[in-house]
Amino acid sequence: MTDRTPRPDRPRIFSRTSWPEARFLADVLRTETVGGGLLLLGAVIALVWANSPWEASYTALGKWVPWAGGEALHLDLSLAKWSGDGLLAIFFFVVGLELKREFVAGELRDPRRAALPVVAALGGMALPALIYVGVNLAAGGDGLRGWAIPTATDIAFALAVLAVIGCYLPQGLRAFLLTLAVVDDLFAITIIAIFYTDDFSPLPLLGALVPIALFALLVQRRRTWWWALIPLAVLAWTLVHASGVHATVAGVLLGFTVPVLRSRDGDTHGLAEHLEHRWRPISAGFAVPVFAFFAAGVSLRGADLGAVVTDPIVIGIVAGLVIGKAVGIFGSTFLLARFTRAELDQDITWSDLLGVALLAGIGFTVSLLIGELAFGTGTAADGNVKAAVLSGSLISALLATVVLVRRNAAYRRIAQAEQVDANRDGVPDVYQHRKG
Question: Any stretches that span the bilayer, and where are they (predicted)?
């Protein structure tokens, strides 16, 4: 039997976070569980509608342009484009707040603790990309443009699945998945900005710095006037969109400007946490599900399923999400532990990590977005991308469920045998007396 006795001379990975971080994580999981359910509902409605006799009405709804007069500002967008370029900016604004918080006051502020999710995220993005490139390089064609599609992890969907099937799993695993997904989003944003920007115009992008700077000035002074901040955010989004850079980048930049630490006036929470609390339900409960509704509606009526299954784009995406993500995250974490002589926390096993690594293969939202940017909305390749992302994400979720349900049952038995009481202050003893 393996000796899991902690050795003080070895660094530990997946160790329990602080009590404030645990409470924050619990709040995130509650929101993302509901958001993940709504996201799934939107995707299912889209799939059913797109494969029904009323398929034409679904397509027409996505192509409808509500503001045809916005051509001068490049805002004559269809509803489907508004959901991807507009509503997802809200999602990425929340991501920007999360990133700022993690680097300033969260797990990523400590380089030693940050090393694990950063290395795991890099491994979980590099290997899927390499698998995709290998498959499509051998096949030739234009498929290589989609190399980044299987690199993304859907934070809402993954956390929702984890919250539903793993309520007894160690808190360190949950924190790892959240931090991994946040770092993953940062790299995904960088990839979108650098590799999927066409017809770049520098002047609008430079002009966007003005409303972003004014937004930053107000939030740094704790001036949360909605009548000023929202118009500035919309103006920044419009100018970034006009520059050719994907407009969701504006949401991240605005999120980065918000201060994280509490002010000296005795604020209970920092402004970033306050705004995240306000905007996360809108992001998880509306913006992302609506995007999923317009993005996931792939029609398989009359399609040559044999050609779809053998398409190198489909094979590369599915293999990247299911195999590349799991092996990349698990392997990079194992190598980090091997070469730094770090050990898993005594409450966690490598089987737990495998389950979380498989869960990270759910690439839904950002993968669909990158697919649209790579091949264009409504193209044959775009339809195959949607089918591949849905299939790969579903397979990853099912495999992760098999592993994590088994591990969750084991931890439930432990929890029932060893009831942990809480102090009168409501803070569990394990957070007050933990070592290291």
Answer: 33-52, 72-94, 114-135, 147-169, 176-196, 202-219, 224-239, 245-261, 282-301, 313-337, 349-375, 387-405
